[in-house]
From TrEMBL:
Domain MrfA-like Zn-binding: 531-635
InterPro entries assigned: DrmB, MZB
Native source organism of the sequence: Psychromicrobium lacuslunae
Region listing for Disordered, in residue ranges: 1-33
A Pfam family that the UniProt record links to this protein: MZB
Name listed for the protein in its UniProt record: MrfA-like Zn-binding domain-containing protein
Length: 675
């Protein structure tokens, strides 16, 4: 795999875990413990997440600890995308000055050492481990660490020298799985000593007693149990689970952020038990844009950003009125200003000298931000085929208006082949227990990436790829949506009521302050989302890409005074290297191929092996699932492909299914049989 970022455990003198390389001449424990692709660090294992390694687990550290890595280079790579940077500032504050890629450097050959000093700092977490031989349970300091093979970081492990085992080197240790978290995103070790003694001290010793963790899967003793070696007290971890168990664990959150290495006391949220591998332990808050050809104003904004971050501010102040000097300074930094006249450069310098305001992202501005803002420029560009021939490859986007096949469904009125595209992504923070888009827009719910919660930069990636854009007939979509909304008792009513129940049961303690209906996508989104999923499943079999490599981007909103209506979808594949531009996906936009794919996808969606149960699935009180006639057999795709985690799907919105009940809806494409 290419474009991998090394995971680094910092040195013994660092504020992070002292598991780096030891003194010269002694047994060397190496700092590198693994590697991951930038996309994985962005969406799966970013700062604050728990990354499973073969023998233990680590947590990527916050951005404060990345600075020591960046200082190893005189120049720092940056990503200049004003549209994305402006959105980041709305979330994280106007002090954010730049987007940076992950600290990585390509190697010239398989045995070369370029970039070996770069990587993402990480802490060992959880820091309570269990011996696989004697079941001893204790903190990190009671175990030995070994990582000596220069090319096998997967062999790194903690070991425990059991008193009676006699095994040389000790027995492997594994992380203890139980953790405490809260809705404000704090994460802490489970207090095993207090738990086994029911909140009291061990009566037989003044010191911290030795504990053992036993696994039991017999009868009612499901789960682990903790035993104190000093007083023989024993207690099962099953007691800590569920609503009743939440009353038995500590009722006060200590406000710990392990990725920042600090405690933030004063948290009023109630802790909850969570397992280390739980899917709701870490949800990234990210934003992404498709890079489009820039206007002159946007190009000047990029140059201003580059001058601001790459040139010395004192030099800009001193020589700001000496244009030849500014041109020379820019040229020394590989900033191309040859096409700009002196007046343009003077304007750019003046803009670069304006410091970011101290205003932070407020609750009101954040709550009022519309996520559709990012999509509107992309939609508008795709509506202007006359400008397609003038596009420049350097912009990262090359699209071609494709002819419609004679047999393509008439409700699909435009096809655009995306020959090349570039996607810029930024991570803003993360949440625990519940995703950001399902709770609120309050910035206080997003866990910060820095100790001050005022980052001056955030991690970002650039991916390249290809895709296909399909646009539905806007008038037909408007008419179909009116028919959906006009039904007094219908499938749409059932989905709205299920969404309200689902919203009320979120882990978020701020959900009660939000109007659930404002968070429910319109019927046209359900239509396009379901259509996108069945196309992804069909295209994966014909494009040469795996289904998990295809992603969707849905453009679906009603007309407002500020913007036109939209009803389109982009299916694309992107990667941080050339693997995303092999041509297998955009080739499917050719008329003969595409009409066959659409026909086959609709036919497959008309029947599911779980019908009639799937075709009639409708949530009713107390059910609160956010899909209807959709399941793993017919509609669900990998969560790396879906922008809504397989929610808001229903085949009844795209087709008239043969198995109907009283909850009906007019299928946008009608009945597929006989066509």
């Amino acid at each position: 795999m290419t474009d991998q970022v090394t995971g680094v455990l910092p040195s013994a003198t660092d504020s992070l875990d002292p598991l780096g390389d030891v003194e010269k001449g002694k047994s060397k424990n190496r700092a590198k413990v693994g590697s991951a692709r930038p996309s994985s660090l962005l969406y799966t294992y970013g700062p604050g997440s728990i990354m499973d390694l073969p023998s233990f687990s680590v947590m990527p550290a916050g951005l404060d600890d990345w600075e020591s890595i960046w200082k190893r280079r005189e120049e720092i790579d940056r990503i200049f995308e004003p549209r994305l940077l402006n959105v980041v500032r709305k979330y994280r504050g106007n002090q954010v000055r730049e987007l940076r890629p992950f600290p990585w450097q390509p190697k010239k050959g398989p045995t070369s050492t370029e970039g070996s000093d770069l990587g993402v700092p990480a802490r060992v977490f959880p820091q309570w481990l269990r011996c696989t031989h004697c079941h001893y349970l204790g903190p990190l300091s009671r175990f030995d660490y070994k990582n000596t093979h220069p090319f096998r970081p997967d062999l790194a492990q903690f070991t425990h020298k059991c008193a009676a085992s006699g095994k040389r080197g000790g027995w492997p240790a594994v992380p203890a799985q139980h953790l405490l978290t809260c809705t404000n995103g704090h994460l802490d070790e489970f207090p095993y000593t207090l738990w086994v003694h029911r909140g009291k001290k061990c009566p037989n010793t003044e010191r911290e007693p030795d504990l053992k963790m036993f696994d039991a899967n017999v009868g009612k003793s499901v789960g682990s149990s903790i035993k104190c070696q000093a007083c023989d007290a024993r207690r099962g971890m099953a007691e800590a689970m569920g609503a009743a168990g939440r009353e038995k664990i500590p009722q006060v959150c200590r406000g710990r952020h392990p990725h920042l290495g600090e405690f933030f006391p004063g948290c009023e949220a109630k802790p909850a038990l969570i397992m280390m591998g739980a899917s709701n332990l870490w949800f990234p808050v990210t934003q992404s844009i498709i890079v489009m050809p820039r206007s002159d104003a946007e190009q000047k904004e990029v140059l201003a950003d580059r001058l601001r971050v790459e040139l010395n501010v004192d030099d800009l102040r001193t020589f700001g009125d000496q244009i030849p000097v500014i041109r020379a300074l820019a040229g020394a930094r590989n900033i191309d200003v040859t096409e700009l006249d002196d007046e343009d450069i003077a304007t750019i310098v003046a803009k670069a000298l304006v410091p970011p305001t101290a205003e932070e992202a407020s609750e009101d501005s954040h709550a009022g931000r519309d996520p559709i803002e990012l999509l509107v420029p992309e939609w508008l560009y795709l509506q202007q085929p006359i400008s397609f021939p003038e596009q420049q490859d350097s912009a990262g986007l090359m699209v071609t208006e494709m002819p419609r096949g004679r047999e393509l469904n008439p409700l699909i009125n435009r096809v655009v082949g995306v020959n090349k595209m570039k996607k810029a992504n930024a991570v803003l923070g993360f949440t625990r227990l519940d995703e950001m888009d399902r709770i609120s827009d309050l910035p206080s719910r997003v866990v910060p990436l820095t100790r001050s919660n005022r980052p001056t930069w955030v991690p970002a990636t650039e991916d390249r790829g290809e895709g296909i854009f399909l646009q539905l007939d806007l008038d037909a979509v408007d008419e179909w949506e009116r028919r959906i909304d006009d039904q007094p008792i219908s499938l749409w009513t059932a989905h709205k009521e299920a969404h309200r129940r689902n919203f009320a049961r979120r882990f978020s303690e701020t959900a009660a302050e939000i109007e659930p209906d404002d968070r429910l996508p319109d019927p046209r989104y359900w239509l396009l989302h379901t259509f996108s999923h069945i196309l992804i499943r069909e295209m994966a079999m014909r494009s040469g890409y795996g289904a998990a490599s295809l992603t969707e981007r849905i453009y679906a909103w009603k007309a407002t005074p500020e913007r036109e209506a939209a009803a389109g979808l982009l299916i694309c594949t992107t990667a941080s290297d050339s693997d995303g531009t092999l041509g297998g996906l955009v080739a499917l936009s050719e008329p003969d191929k595409l009409q066959g794919i659409v026909r086959a996808a609709l036919r497959r969606a008309a029947r599911c092996s779980s019908d009639p149960m799937c075709a009639q699935r409708t949530p009713s009180d107390p059910e609160d699932f956010l899909h209807g006639a959709a399941c793993h057999t017919c509609c669900f795709v990998s969560e790396t492909s879906c922008e809504k985690a397989n929610r808001f799907l229903d085949r009844r919105f795209i087709l008239d299914l043969p198995a109907q009940n009283r909850f009906t809806a007019p299928g946008f494409f009608g009945s597929i049989y006989g066509h």
